[in-house]
Amino acid sequence: MISTACDGRLTSEEILASGASLSALGVTSLALLRLIDAVEDEFDVALDLGGGAPYLDSFPLLVGYMDARTP
User: Fold this and answer.
1) How far apart (Å, rounded) are the C-alpha atoms in residues 31 and 27?
2) Which of 7, 47, 48, 55 could form a disulfide with 61 if both were Cys (CB 3.0 to 4.6 A apart)?
């Protein structure tokens, strides 16, 4: 989903292998909005964007956040 949101500029392998934040990888604010939409649609959830949504800054944080909120 992250790769798609970035129009393929990052591969899944790059995202999984990197320990860097999504912003450090070059994920733009527009790509984050696309990612939010994709996650909400795919998992039928509403992401809480309050408090700066720190879980959107890295792939492991996003996975952990979603794991805690989906059955």
Assistant:
1) 6
2) 55
pTM summary value: 0.84
Tokens of 33: 């909005």
The domain locations on the chain are 2-69
Report the alpha-carbon distance of residue 71 to residue 21 in Å, rounded: 26
Q: How far apart are CA 1 and CA 47, in angstroms?
A: 15
Question: Tens digits of per-residue pLDDT, 17-53?
Answer: 988 899 999 999 999 999 999 999 998 988 888 888 8
Amino acid at 29: S
